[in-house]
Amino acid sequence: MNPFEVTRGDGPVVLGVPHSGTFVPADIWQRLTSIGQKLADTDWHVDRLYEGLLPGVTMVRANFHRYVIDANRDPEGVSLYPGQNTTTLCPTTDFDGKPIYLEDEAPADEEIETRRLAWHAPYHAALQSELERVHARHGVSILYDCHSIRSRVPYLFEGALPDFNTGTNGGATCAPEIEHAVFERTENADGYTAVLNGRFKGGWTTRHYGRPEEGFHAIQMELAQITHLVSEDTPFAYDEDKAERLRSHLKDILEALAALAPTLSRTANEDPGSAS
After folding, report:
1. By the 8 A CB rule, do 226 and 151 touch?
2. Contact 228, 152 (CB under 8 A)
3. Residue 5 burial (CB count, 10 A)
4. Which runs of consecutive H residues, i.e. helices, occur in 71-217?
5. Helix 240-270 and helix 176-187: axis angle, to 10°?
6. CA 127 – CA 123 distance, rounded (Å)
């Protein structure tokens, strides 16, 4: 199994999809509990949601499941949200805090490092390569990291999650124009709720690649799965009607980002302190 798939385009926007993959190697699968084998924490159908919305877009998608190793966590194991419940680089619990490994079967440090090299590192090498390619072509790259999660996960947050959760690590990972363009469209999406830098402020991917002063912009979108699934439980089926309604808003967001790119590129080129 290739750790990732790349759909290459000639535009300025790159979609990262780290959590829609469901592949788990057999030697890991047999060590998972029935809860783990449910794979409930998958970002179900996120790649399908964004498919075909923006001509020229590039997509880098991880094929492996986040239970193998989480492609949106710091490879050094540093917590994204200190003091809050979250899952780790190589998760041992699900989003409800329940063990996903059989007793004494959780991976030790050496195995975690092996998994990192086999899965996490190749995915990020591919993502970085595409961002650099796009930047060389356009003078700017915009990484839009695509995610989804159940709307209610008491272990991670109270109450119901808004439908659109935009994360820029407090504005540090992208130009203000990008943050504004995305949040404005989610906030005004009829029938949906939205928040900026709420519970999800952007994972390691967004924080690692977002260097707006160099023309590398990154933003994360966490969608509540109620927006596009029939049910947020097995079999996590795709709801065509819900998804089509949602896709119209996602298309508007991506088109706005692509339209901003030339302006951002000119700004970066005019700034003598910027690096390309």
Report:
1. yes
2. no
3. 15
4. 109-115, 121-138, 176-187, 204-209
5. 160
6. 6
Residue 45 CA to residue 16 CA, distance in Å, equals 14
> Which residue is it, tokens 């989003």?
95
Cis ω before 235 (30° cut-off from 0): yes
* Alpha-carbon span 9 to 263, nearest angstrom: 20
Contact 168, 219 (CB under 8 A): yes
Residue 275: predicted pLDDT: 36
**DSSP character at residue 214:** G
Contact (Cβ atoms closer than 8 angstroms) between residue 181 and residue 257 = yes
Q: What is the model's pTM?
A: 0.93
Residue for token digits 């780790």?
Answer: 88
Q: Cα–Cα distances in Å, from 55 out to 5, 52, 59, 141, 216?
A: 18, 7, 11, 15, 20
Number of Cβ within 10 Å of residue 108's Cβ equals 8
pLDDT higher than threshold 70 for residue 266: no
* Alpha helices, DSSP H, located in 93-189: 109-115, 121-138, 176-187
All residues at 6 or more sequence positions from 163 whose CB lies less than 8 Å from its CB, including other chains = 151, 186, 189, 192, 193, 194, 223, 224, 226, 227
Closest C-alpha among 91, 21, 23, 101 to residue 61: 21
d(CA 15, CA 72): 13
pLDDT, tens digit (0-9, with 9 covering 90-100), for 43-80:
999 999 999 999 999 999 999 999 999 999 999 887 67
CA-to-CA distance for 134 and 87, rounded, in angstroms?
A: 31
What is residue 273's predicted lDDT score, i.e. its pLDDT? 45
Amino acid making up residue 155: Y
**Bridge partners for 61 per DSSP:** 5, 17
